[in-house]
Design a protein that fits this description.
17 strands; five-stranded parallel beta sheet; OB fold (Dihydrolipoamide Acetyltransferase, E2P); 2 domains; alpha/beta; five-stranded antiparallel beta sheet
Length: 254
Amino acid sequence: MEVVLIEDEAVAADGLVNLLSRYDEDIQVVERLDSVEDAVQWFAHNPPPRLVLLDVQLADGLCFDIFPQVDIRCPIIFTTAYDQYAIQAFQVTSIDYLLKPIAYADLHRALEKLRLLTTEYAPPPDMSLRQLADVFQQLQKPYKTRFLARNNDRLQFKVTDEIAYFCADGKFVHLVGLDQRRFLVDYTLEQLETLLDPRQFFRLNRKYIVSLAAVKDIRTYAGSRLRVQMLPMPCTEVIISRERVAEFKAWLDH
């Protein structure tokens, strides 16, 4: 799938490229643009890609200034740090509207929505606003705010504001509270990644999903990686790979 990425922040653009590759290694970012002017010139002289990832606020104005000047006949996923432009986004061929920092779970849902629209409905550019809204409502689901957790023979609910991080240990996943208490939950980290609010939680690596409240210190580490100190202290050193550093920084900077 060919994708055009229109984003004026280099860190955010790099993070999106990594997320797209994580979803499908065959996705090809054919062009990266950072302004309304460059976008108008590109679409005026090139065939439409399969998908456009479009930041709302660009270097020289709002992305909506593009549409009166050039006809973009392909699906669009809007990305922004603000939510006041959602209605305008759905007045063009929008598939989704993602708030920064973009989490993998959100982008995954948007790309799956594109796949659903392509296979089960009319091609996205010809869909009505009502059809788009209906599909959006079907696929959008609220994030979990509490989890049923187990400590020995005791079951209790833990709300997300009380959670420091989730840790995978072999076949088990532990919920560790800000109060240092540990519980077992019946979810994999992959399942949790789609259930948790990406503004509050981040998948650090294969073993940890951390809450923003638990991140206490970050240090540079060998190989352009990062070492994260969390409270409560985990039993192992927590390292973020070079490929995930840009996405992690964007999450922290939100």
